[in-house]
Amino acid sequence: MGSVGNKYRVHEVAKDFGVPTKQITEILTKYAETPKNHMQVLEDRELSLIFEYLTQHNQVSGIQVIFAEGAKPAEKKQQPAAKPAEKKPEGKGESRSAKQETKPVSRVPQTKVVDTRKATAVNLDKYDEKLQDMAEGRTGGGRRAQQQTQGKEKFRNGGKRRDNGFSNKRKQEEADRLRRLRLEVIKKTPVTVQIPDEISVGELASRMKKTGAEVVKCLMKNGVMASLSQLIDFDTAAIIAEEMGCKVEKEVVVTIEEKLIDDHKDNEKDLVPRAPVVVVMGHVDHGKTSLLDYIRNAHVASGEAGGITQHIGAYQVQINGKPITFLDTPGHEAFTSMRARGAMVTDIAILVVAAEDGIMPQTVESINHAKAAGIPIIVAINKMDKPEANPERIKQQLTEYGLVCEEWGGDTIVCPISAKTGMGVDNLLEMLTLTAEVGELKANPNRAAQGTVIEARLDKGRGPVATLLVQNGTLKQGDIIIAGTSVGRVRAMVSDKGQKITSAGPSVPVEITGLSEAPTAGATFNAVADEKLARELVEQRKAEEKAKANAPVTKVSLEDLFSQIQAGEMKNLNLIVKADVQGSVEAVKASLEKLSNDEVRVRVIHGGVGAINESDVMLASTSQAIIVGFNVRPDNAARDSAARANVDMRMYRVIYDAINEIEAAMKGMLAPKFREVLLGHAEVRQTYKVSGVGTVAGCYVQDGKLQRKDCQVRLVRDGIVIHEGVLASLQRFKDQAKEVLAGYECGLTIEKFNDIKEGDIVEAFTMEEIPQ
Ligand SMILES: Nc1nc2c(ncn2[C@@H]2O[C@H](COP(=O)(O)OP(=O)(O)OP(=O)(O)O)[C@@H](O)[C@H]2O)c(=O)[nH]1
């Protein structure tokens, strides 16, 4: 017993008795020699004193009353202060059961077990534990349990003696009964389970505090056969959990990204108009750069303080007091590569078409890229100063691509201009502001900045330098930003006019320093509050990137087209058609689009003449499209990037084959028995006419190999397939060769084909059977 007194403090005594600490200290001050504060340890003598006092002041008429009625009367008298707290645990069942028992073990201590520290939130677990302690009569388990025993002792010593009616056996029985009651109560209280989007059966069982077998059985009853390790979705898990008497809560996992990046939707009232972001696209040499330069020079006041025009990748001009932001990288490559990264930066596209040249392949590409991005197109017919300019012809051509000018009843704005003389450029700019107004472009300048990396490089002196386009919020000097896998504090900010600035609002491009590394163009950036968390996120992103680089990307392919349609994942089948002549493009486009049915709409999002290039692959990749080629081949860059981006490219020689195959794929009946396996490429460097043999081509094997047996070849000239057939002979010097590897020269002839020219590419391949 003595050991108990060693650590029993004033406030604990007060709590256990459910009386204010003050009352205890008052008792002590009155009767003990030394007054105590609430943290001081009590000695046995002082404890007895308190017990004595409290017992005397809270007397009941006889011990029988307590036994007959339970602890209530004593409890009530003793501590009116603890009343509200008492109520809670009573409602929880445990105390109810204790009450029902009305055993002396719980007589005085019953008030003790109530945690009165916080009347509003009672720690029930603790309460349970205490009950257990009391019931089991544990003495070594806890200070309070010990104290309770001591309390009992004191009670007896206090004069109300009775026989020690509790034999050890009875105590044991009592404890057992209490434990059973407790288990009963626990069983009846519904367990609340948190279920994420997906959960394994085993994990669900443990969260529900059930055995795996019970859960598997319940699943089976519901027609789901799943093993313990198998994952089931939220809905299934929720049904099972409810059926098993649990309350279900959806577990929401908060990622670092969600914690760090504030991406709440802006309130309409916080939004203010922002400048449109404009991209200039068009065919090579049609005047994109000239136009961008003209606008910049005419509208950026050269005399601005400290201003030296800087090429930072974007610039802003004021037209009649309204700002317009131009992306300074002409062409759709940059635009599409940004879009490929998911960055939606531009609001309007200017399509530059040279008046004397008309619509060219890249013009068409540009139109389709802008259409795929869903942004309005304003056509600038350039080089109007040239005598041979023929704008009417261009307007006519534009209609073929769905761009009908306003004067012909359409809604496409067409502005004749000259980037050389400046004629019509102001009108074009006005049209831009008008289009922007229609678009009601808005942003909220009063929040953390968010936007896109336009350009980035490593500067010898300044370290990583990046041009950022703020799209929402305001970027300030000193902000911590995270841009893709780069993080840092904005050290210096320079505007497009070369001026040092300290903040940049929506649609404003700025060049900044302070990042840890040069981010990739097209990456999004965010200003954040927590640098440590930002660094953590960067590490996570880097790891994800690594994992992604190793994992194959699943893109649309003819093979799994049907399953995607079935799963309802595909509503549009996007195709890009490339062919050797314009006539084929049109014919294929029309026939393929006719394949549309109720479930899937077949859309040719781009069609053009010539080899499949990287831009086609990029467009396919961003628009989830399949590339269909007729008598054309992909160039090397396209082939590489298609492999990287997992873009499905299908080459055909006959239109009929293409239509049949795509139709079959849509119906899930595509059963390709053979697959083409590329062997290698050889360039024709010389040709000889040999009588009786035909044209012998002296070739250099560029990659892979050429082989004699089972080798089919395709002769490609400027990306167009001229012939497809088989090798008739393959030689190294005078000897027949079985195969010729990359880096070696060889001579070859193609069966029944002689029209081989220098510069042609021989593409060798075999057909491999696909195991069913
Ligand atoms: N006469 C005349 N020449 C122009 C006009 N605009 C551009 N040019 C000329 O056309 C040529 C090509 O212009 P760029 O601005 O370089 O064309 P681009 O579309 O940017 O070309 P890339 O950057 O190669 O794609 C240059 O020699 C310009 O001087 C114009 O309005 N009138």
TrEMBL record:
| Cleaved signal peptide residues | none
The Swiss-Prot or TrEMBL record describes its family as follows:
Belongs to the TRAFAC class translation factor GTPase superfamily. Classic translation factor GTPase family. IF-2 subfamily.
**Gene name tied to this protein:** infB
> Annotated Gene Ontology MF terms?
GTP binding; GTPase activity; translation initiation factor activity
Q: Where is this region: Disordered?
A: 73-119, 134-174
Q: What is this protein called?
A: Translation initiation factor IF-2
Q: Which GO terms describe its cellular component?
A: cytosol
Q: Name one Pfam family in it.
A: EF-G_D2
Which positions fall inside the Tr-type G domain? 273-442
Specify where the region named G-domain lies, as residue ranges: 276-424
* Keywords assigned by UniProt, alphabetized: Cytoplasm, GTP-binding, Initiation factor, Nucleotide-binding, Protein biosynthesis
What ranges does the record list as Basic and acidic residues composition bias? Answer: 73-104, 151-174
Q: Which SUPFAM superfamilies match?
A: Initiation factor IF2/eIF5b, domain 3 (SSF52156), P-loop containing nucleoside triphosphate hydrolases (SSF52540), Translation proteins (SSF50447)
Q: Which Gene3D superfamilies match?
A: 1.10.10.2480, P-loop containing nucleotide triphosphate hydrolases, Translation factors, Translation initiation factor IF- 2, domain 3
Q: Where in the cell is it found?
A: Cytoplasm
What does the entry list as the binding residues for GTP?
Answer: 282-289, 328-332, 382-385
Q: What does this protein do?
A: One of the essential components for the initiation of protein synthesis. Protects formylmethionyl-tRNA from spontaneous hydrolysis and promotes its binding to the 30S ribosomal subunits. Also involved in the hydrolysis of GTP during the formation of the 70S ribosomal complex.
